[in-house]
Amino acid sequence: MFRCVVEMFGLPGEITELREVEVELEDGATLRDVVAAIRRKIPALEGTAIRVGEDQLVENYKFNVNGHFYYDDMSLKIQSGDRIALLVPITGG
């Protein structure tokens, strides 16, 4: 078991009024497990950043892990020390 810090940017940060949240994960955890842990710890994100009743992000919300975007790969394994950010990678003009 290990702890992981997830940074919050944009609307998730505004909703939670947090810049980051620490979650506890089992060895072999995936991004789906990160979503589940966030959903349990911060229910206010369900329906905005997290799909209601699912361990899945809503459309347009993405994770950045160690500087790389992972759009659909919720099976990506997370390791202790990984840097994770929850954000919406959309820019406007």
User: What is the CATH-assigned architecture?
Assistant: Roll
Largest beta sheet: strand ordering: 2-1-5-3-4
Q: Quote the distance from N terminus to C terminus.
A: 43 Å
Task: Tell me the strand percentage band.
Answer: 25-35%
Number of strands: 5
* Main sheet makeup: 5 strands, mixed
Order of helices and strands: EHEHEEE
Note poorly predicted spans.
none
Radius of gyration: 12 Å
How helical, in percent, are the residues? 10-25%
User: Class in CATH?
Assistant: Alpha Beta
Written description of the protein model:
It contains two helices and five strands, in the order βαβαβββ. Strand 3 and strand 4 form a beta hairpin. The protein has one domain (2-87): Ubiquitin-like (UB roll), CATH 3.10.20. A five-stranded mixed beta sheet has the order 2-1-5-3-4. It starts with a strand and ends in a 6-residue tail after the last strand. By secondary structure, it is of the alpha+beta class. The model has no long low-confidence stretch (mean pLDDT 91). The chain has helices at 11-16, 31-41; strands spanning 2-8, 20-25, 62-65, 68-70, 84-87. The longest helix has 11 residues, at 31-41.
Give the helices and strands, then pairings.
Layout: E1 2-8, H1 11-16, E2 20-25, H2 31-41, E3 62-65, E4 68-70, E5 84-87
Parallel strand pairs: 1-5
Antiparallel strand pairs: 1-2, 3-4, 3-5
Short note summarizing the structure:
With 93 residues, this protein is an alpha+beta fold.
List the main descriptive attributes of the protein structure presented here.
alpha+beta, 26% strand, 5-stranded mixed beta sheet, Ubiquitin-like (UB roll), 2 helices, single chain, 5 strands, 93 residues
